[in-house]
């Protein structure tokens, strides 16, 4: 990536009095780790910043990630409102305020005389934030959909689009996007090293390495290159705690997640001649485990690790009695968005997903037949 892009991103946040770091709902572990690293790195440069992941359960943010206390599930106030009263001729003697029926009442008592309507004016304050770093948003529509209420403020500020997904549309004024990168954490590392490598301490290095490990299935992904391993080695040299990462990512799985994986593994089927692996989960499985359909990507990652020789992995989830969701993962030479196209799936060459308007078992049989034909 051209150094000028990194420099543009650096100058943008250096000039901002406060930066807002955003991630989508149900973020990947890589995205959460990247956000934590970015927040900590900005703090190291004494740049105030806040992180927002909509509706995030704060208990699900791994405790070993730095600056996790700066991540919140919703936006706070975006700007102040100033009420100005001209007191040059009529000074204030007393002020009392109260909230009644959802309305703020302010009672001002003058020392003498009275105020006129012309003495009062309202002024919107300055924006709380002056720059945005959007992590893992493939397009502006996705960003607007997640942050629909303050969409106007999103259009007012310079945005840094940080992503590695092939679906990314390079939609922002500043695009830190590299399709050859394995993860958002790898993209952030490149930016930090271009800016000031000395500010990457052991906690930031740990967060970045966690993102690399999570998004490459512990470096088993086909996208891993010698350069990826070299970067991981640099992070360990900088103090990244691999043992803490392994414990935080895998040894603290919640019981409900393990239940869901157990049911998926119990129904695992394998077409060895085509390298195709699939499993099914009913609506009742989801309810009994206490998890959500949002854990599909994580489940696919576990199945890939469980059957490393699989070229294509499919997970079918019963959304309702007439609709089935399908998550598809493919390894080269196959592309998930290509072999999934006849099924109406959308995504990148590695992942594709979508809904099939059929009951679970019928959808599974239909999709497996289509995948077999594509793989043949």
Instruction: Examine the coordinates and then state which fold CATH places here, giving the name of the CATH topology of the largest domain.
Output: inorganic pyrophosphatase (n-terminal core)
| Distance between the first and last residues' Cα | 37 Å
Proportion in β-strands? 15-25%
Helix tally equals: 13
User: What is the second-level CATH architecture of the largest domain?
Assistant: Alpha-Beta Complex
Task: Tell me the helix content.
Answer: 25-40%
Query: What would you report as the Rg, rounded to the nearest angstrom?
Result: 25 Å
CATH class membership of the largest domain: Alpha Beta
Give the overall shape.
globular
Number of strands: 16
Count of spatially separate domains: 3
In CATH terms, the superfamily of the largest domain is inorganic pyrophosphatase (n-terminal core)
Low-confidence stretches: none
* Average pLDDT taken over every residue: 87
Q: Largest beta sheet: what is the strand line-up?
A: 3-2-1-8-9-10
Main sheet summary: 6 strands, parallel
Which structural class is indicated by helix and strand composition?
alpha/beta
Order of helices and strands: HEHEEEEEEEHHEEHHHHHEEHHEEHEEH
In words, what does this structure look like?
With 376 residues, this protein is α/β, with parallel strands linked by helices. It has 3 domains: 3-75 and 129-248, Alpha-Beta Complex (inorganic pyrophosphatase (n-terminal core)), CATH 3.90.1640; 79-125, no CATH class; 255-375, Diaminopimelate Epimerase, Chain A, domain 1 (Roll), CATH 3.10.310. 37% of the residues lie in helices and 24% in strands. It contains 13 helices and 16 strands. α2 links the parallel β1 (19-22) and β2. α1 crosses α5 (184-196), α2 runs parallel beside α5 and α6 (202-215) packs across α8.
